[in-house]
Design a protein that fits this description.
By secondary structure, this protein is of the alpha/beta class. Helix content is 56%, strand content 13%. Helix 4 crosses helix 6 and helix 8 crosses helix 9.
Length: 214
């Protein structure tokens, strides 16, 4: 029975939050909390451990991906559905890195949310068709390329994502700038980056959040 399924919803847009609560209530789900910022969402998830949390990814105080990471670190068994407008490759990379349970776009029909909830309750994942298409055509190939990098090369791209120059990286790793530049060249080759003024910087800017999670 749907009433036995406890759900927390979190979104900082009041109309969306109230509309989602109404729709889910009409399906008979037990909405135990609706909150409008990430910090409160995390506190409620940890303390109440709902079966499912439906999260907007961009919220004040704490973003959706941060909530998921912190809740799982606390041992919470809640399953998470991201409900967002974001279809950029960087967000989908983060979602795949977190092995998120569901990812839906806000411009999709409500029936998708209901289908996602049913899938999660059966131990399955659920992703929108847009998510699956972007993952297959744009994200999965990038993940395969990143997996080719050595631990040292991953460290360097993380440091680049943190805004550090080659000189900074060389000093932090106690290596020569020439060594760092050689690593950068190897990374560009392995990622198959196309020519530009600074192709690695362009790639890092697009995938910054994912890189920082490596």
């Amino acid at each position: 029975m749907n009433k036995n399924v406890s759900i927390l919803i979190a979104d900082d847009h009041p109309l969306l939050l109230n509309g989602l609560e109404q729709e889910l209530s009409e399906f008979g789900y037990n909405i135990i909390e609706k909150v409008d910022n990430g910090a409160i969402a995390l506190e409620r998830i940890v303390s109440q451990q709902p079966d499912i949390a439906i999260l907007d990814l961009e919220m004040p105080l704490l973003w959706g991906f941060d909530i998921i990471q912190k809740a799982r670190a606390e041992g919470v068994k809640t399953k998470f559905i991201a409900l967002t407008y974001h279809k950029e490759r960087s967000f989908i990379l983060q979602a795949s890195k977190l092995n998120i349970d569901g990812y839906l776009l806000k411009d999709e029909p409500f029936s998708e949310i209901h289908a996602a909830i049913r899938a999660l309750l059966k131990g399955e994942q659920y992703f929108s068709e847009t998510f699956k298409s972007i993952y297959k055509n744009n994200v999965s190939p990038e993940i395969k390329k990143v997996n080719l990098l050595t631990p040292s090369e991953r460290t360097i791209i993380r440091m680049i994502a943190q805004g550090k120059s080659s000189q900074d990286i060389a000093e932090d790793l106690t290596v020569s700038v020439r060594t760092v530049q050689k690593h950068r060249s190897n990374i560009i080759y392995k990622l198959d980056l196309k020519s530009s003024v600074d192709p690695l910087a362009d790639w890092v800017n697009e995938y910054r959040e994912f890189i920082l999670s490596l």
